[in-house]
């Protein structure tokens, strides 16, 4: 009996050891990433195929046994890529077989391995057997592991056949174009650098980026050692940028290579369920015969000019349809009476400034003055972005105005044939008939937001740490508990009150040390100066900005 029991125990122990073997073998694998220690142990594993995705550096040094996979051959047929037979033949020439685990790498922290991953996955290779070496060749060498110049002998032709494409991870221009106009349900994630995004680098015939593109440079998904950031860090970053799991996410770049980094990070690290790559990317966008628009600022619609206001806020549209435009002139009453834009409502800047610390009081003024919270409120100062117009912009956002913009033209420019200034008072009162253009008073709901304008820095907590931006000529004497950078708002404006070019603003902010991943709090002894920087940062697409009233 004892012998039988001993035998059973030994069998049980042996079974546990056997079960542990696969688990032990998987140590070093996390999702679709393998670390260098795992690859070191599996260098001579016949079931592992190592692909070097960096053809420019392969001859100089590569991991022993790695096969050179020139991904640029996949693009030699143009934007659409190589036909299926040629692609299949290329994969097979690298030794790709369905039963193997494919580990691919590049110098580390770039986009070549991720693009190769995408191409294999798109063409039907099982994701469970596709892996990227985390940290690439950089991490491999940093760990003191061997490299060689000796080319790996050509592998035996692989057996992988392209039978079914994963078409749900690739998007073409028509769908992408539709998504660009529906930001509630879609997110366009741009993997290029800020210089490209804001128009300093422009290899195409246009400078800037696709409208509503969200700047998420491929480098931002990597740690300093060129390994990928953790799933939690990537989810945090995406959430901060306003990219949500329930959205349809499209990643793009200039020609579809860098776009593979946010694609891989969002889908295979953060596990976002709906992610597609746009292979044609900006090259496909700018080559479209419709001459599709391009932006340099992230939110150019925050700026309005004469022709826009003439149409949307003018007499003709008001006679036949409700334009949903409230024109808010913040000049003193005396200046307003000397001439103003037709249908403008005069709410002097002092009204906004005196209520900066208690915006709820404005509710009692805005509604009777004719400002509707459901409108777009266009703020006019007569000189573009000023301290006065910027503070009004912030206060209206604080009160929950549906949309707010700033009129950038001078009033001299408004005074042109067909749209001259008027001295007639804007009538605010009940409309007496269909042709009556009086602006009816309303009840302003005053849905005061807790963010935007704050009086206590500790009252809010962003996804990332606070960075304070001193926005006046001098840094206020009152110290702030955190990092402080100095960016006078006047440095970001032209002489006529319009913001400088997006590329120049980006360079000024970067040189001053303004981080993109931070809770940015603008402050000054004059809240209008802080509000001006708030406006410009919002124009540039910074996600988390506030104004501190001190």
Distinct helical segment count = 20
Indicate the low-confidence ranges by residue numbers: 1-25
Query: How are the strands of the biggest sheet laid out side by side?
Result: 1-2-6-5-3-4
Q: What can be said about the biggest beta sheet?
A: 6 strands, mixed
- Mean pLDDT, as a whole number? 92
Number of β-strand runs: 20
Give the C-level CATH assignment of the largest domain: Alpha Beta
- How many distinct folded domains? 4
Roughly how many Å is the radius of gyration? 29 Å
Task: Tell me the helix content.
Answer: 25-40%
- Assign the structural class, choosing from mainly alpha, mainly beta, alpha/beta, alpha+beta, or little secondary structure: alpha/beta
CATH H-level superfamily title of the largest domain: Rhodanese-like domain
- Looking at the structure, what is the overall shape? elongated
Distance between the termini: 85 Å
Describe this structure in words.
The longest helix has 24 residues, at 2-25. The chain contains 20 helices and 20 strands. Mean pLDDT is 92; it is low at 1-25. Helix 5 (112-122) crosses helix 10 (260-269) and helix 17 crosses helix 20. The strands form four sheets. The protein has a six-stranded mixed β-sheet with strand order 1-2-6-5-3-4. The chain folds into four domains: 29-165, Rhodanese-like domain (Oxidized Rhodanese, domain 1, 3-Layer(aba) Sandwich); 168-286, Oxidized Rhodanese, domain 1 (3-Layer(aba) Sandwich); 300-414, Oxidized Rhodanese, domain 1; 453-549, Oxidized Rhodanese, domain 1 (3-Layer(aba) Sandwich), CATH 3.40.250.10. The protein is elongated. With 550 residues, the protein is α/β, with parallel strands linked by helices.
């Amino acid at each position: 009996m004892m012998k039988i029991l001993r035998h059973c125990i030994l069998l049980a122990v042996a079974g546990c050891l056997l079960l542990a073997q696969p688990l032990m073998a998987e140590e070093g694998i996390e999702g679709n990433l393998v670390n260098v220690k795992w690859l070191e142990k599996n260098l001579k594993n016949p079931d592992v195929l190592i692909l070097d995705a960096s053809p420019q550096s392969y001859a100089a040094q590569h991991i022993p046994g790695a096969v050179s996979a020139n991904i640029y051959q996949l693009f030699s047929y143009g934007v659409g890529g190589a036909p299926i037979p040629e692609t299949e033949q290329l994969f097979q020439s690298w030794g790709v077989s369905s039963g193997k685990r494919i580990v691919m790498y590049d110098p580390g922290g770039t986009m070549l391995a991720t693009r190769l991953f995408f191409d294999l996955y798109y063409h039907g290779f099982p994701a469970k057997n596709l892996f990227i070496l985390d940290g690439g060749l950089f991490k491999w060498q940093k760990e003191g592991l061997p490299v060689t110049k000796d080319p790996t002998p050509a592998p035996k032709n692989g057996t992988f056949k392209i039978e079914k494409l994963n078409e749900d991870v690739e998007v073409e221009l028509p769908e992408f174009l539709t998504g660009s106009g529906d930001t509630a349900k879609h997110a366009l994630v741009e993997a290029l650098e800020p210089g490209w995004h804001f128009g300093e680098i422009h290899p195409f015939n246009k400078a800037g980026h696709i409208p509503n593109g969200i700047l998420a440079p491929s480098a931002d998904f990597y740690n300093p050692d060129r390994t990928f950031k953790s799933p939690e860090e990537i989810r945090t970053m995406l959430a901060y940028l306003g990219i949500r799991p329930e959205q349809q996410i499209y990643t793009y770049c200039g020609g579809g290579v860098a776009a593979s980094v946010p694609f891989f990070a969002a889908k295979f690290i953060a596990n976002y369920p709906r992610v597609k790559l746009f292979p044609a990317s900006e090259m496909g966008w700018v080559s479209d015969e419709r001459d599709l628009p391009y932006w340099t600022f992230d939110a150019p619609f925050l700026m309005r000019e004469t022709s826009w206001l003439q149409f949307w806020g003018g007499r003709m549209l008001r006679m036949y349809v409700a334009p949903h435009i409230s024109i808010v002139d913040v000049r003193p009453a005396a200046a307003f009476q000397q001439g103003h834009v037709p249908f403008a409502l005069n709410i002097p800047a002092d009204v906004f400034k005196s209520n900066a610390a208690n915006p709820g009081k404005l509710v009692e003024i805005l509604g009777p003055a004719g400002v509707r919270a459901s409108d777009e409120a266009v703020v006019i100062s007569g000189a573009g972005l000023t301290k006065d117009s910027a503070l009004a912009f912030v206060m209206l956002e604080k009160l929950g105005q549906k949309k707010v913009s700033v009129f950038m033209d001078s009033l001299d420019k408004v005074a042109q044939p067909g749209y001259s200034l008027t001295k007639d008072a804007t009538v605010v009162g009940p409309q007496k008939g269909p042709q009556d253009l009086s602006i009816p008073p309303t009840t302003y709901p005053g849905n005061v937001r807790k963010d935007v304008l704050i009086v206590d820095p500790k009252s809010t907590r962003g996804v990332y740490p606070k960075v304070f931006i001193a926005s006046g000529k001098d840094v206020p004497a009152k110290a702030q508990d955190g990092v402080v950078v100095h960016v006078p708002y006047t440095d970001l404006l032209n002489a006529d009150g319009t913001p400088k070019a997006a590329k120049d603003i980006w360079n000024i902010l970067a040189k001053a040390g303004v981080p993109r991943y931070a809770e940015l709090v603008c402050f000054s002894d004059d809240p209008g100066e802080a509000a001006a920087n708030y406006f410009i940062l919002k124009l540039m697409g910074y996600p988390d900005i506030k104004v501190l009233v001190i």
